[in-house]
């Protein structure tokens, strides 16, 4: 018995240690976890590494290109060379064969042949290739900025979900607080009912209200779990694992809700604006690529081959080996391309003009998004103060109404109405907190400073 008790105590102790060791995530912990484990960010990193390798591939074309060859052949049927039968004509007349064929065939080659060789090619002047390196570098920068944009999206979405969980858990806590108040009133009313001081219908109405509130609280708690699952998905966390979020800090919220100096909008802080600038550079390089097609290309080459022939398998008197080598320059000069290159240049000009217009549109859109986010932040900031005062007033009204009811001055309808108003005020305050933090995150995203949330 003592041994079983000892084991039971040890198990309970282990469970208690595990529960106490459960990490409680604050915003920074959630964001850092998401940046390290979000699968979309990992995919973006793969694209970034792939783009770097693509640039290395083009850089490799600027280095010497060396290749080797080798062959071993057995000539089952040797080739034949047809030529005039000059031998019969060179014979003395009395020895010439009048029926001799006009042409004769001569068998060429040996039974076996082999060779090994190496070739080196080096680009000396190729502006198209040099420009391709710049295009690949710009494309790599674009991919890197796309990865940054994906990280910023993850930061924004993770922060919004984190604050939504906090606000919803706060709402659930307010429901629980209201239920506790009703439970205390129920206890008092049940005593009064037993003494015949109140009607049963009043007691039943309060019980119905209590049941409805418990049902609403259960729905809110389920909403918390749904939001936590969304948060875990966004963070790249195991869905079967548990995540605990730190409780809402109302003082910190209210400090953030105080009016502050907002920085002026700067489009250069926006990743999308930086990406558009890189796209403009890319269009300029593509125009250069069309222009460089009119330029000559100069390539140097060196070849060396070592060949062997033999009637026997590379032995005997017919076994011969010899080497050959060559060095040279290859110049290719475009002369006329059917005006296609001129059309490419004009098309590139149109693309450059289009992207300039895109820049104007994007800057206006980003500026509008920032101004709208600023307006929503100011509106939600005012709503917090209003709803906080409204909630305090509703609490006071409920307290006075409940006291008056106990003194027989107020009716049960008054108590239920004041309780309903209190719950509504609490939910409105929680909703105002959530809206403020969503606007807070949105303003950081629109202002290009979303990464400040990670610090």
Topology:
Elements: H1 2-21, E1 24-25, H2 27-37, H3 39-62, E2 65-74, E3 80-84, H4 86-90, E4 103-107, E5 112-125, H5 127-194, H6 200-235, E6 244-245, H7 250-256, H8 271-292, E7 297-310, E8 320-332, H9 340-406, H10 412-447
Parallel strand pairs: 1-6
Antiparallel strand pairs: 2-5, 3-4, 5-7, 7-8
Helix pairs in contact: 2-5, 3-5, 5-6, 5-8, 5-10, 8-9, 9-10
Order of helices and strands: HEHHEEHEEHHEHHEEHH
List segments where confidence is low: pLDDT < 50 over at least 5 consecutive residues: 6-20
Briefly note the structural class of the backbone.
alpha+beta
Q: If classified by CATH, what would the architecture of the largest domain be?
A: Up-down Bundle
Distance between the termini: 55 Å
Number of domains: 2
Walkthrough of the structure:
The chain folds into two domains: 27-64 and 134-294 and 339-453, Outer membrane efflux proteins (OEP); 78-109, no CATH class. Residues 6-20 have low confidence and may be disordered. The protein has helices spanning 2-21, 27-37, 39-62, 86-90, 127-194, 200-235, 250-256, 271-292, 340-406, 412-447, and strands at residues 24-25, 65-74, 80-84, 103-107, 112-125, 244-245, 297-310, 320-332. With 455 residues, it is α+β, with helices and mostly antiparallel strands. The chain is 65% helix and 14% strand.
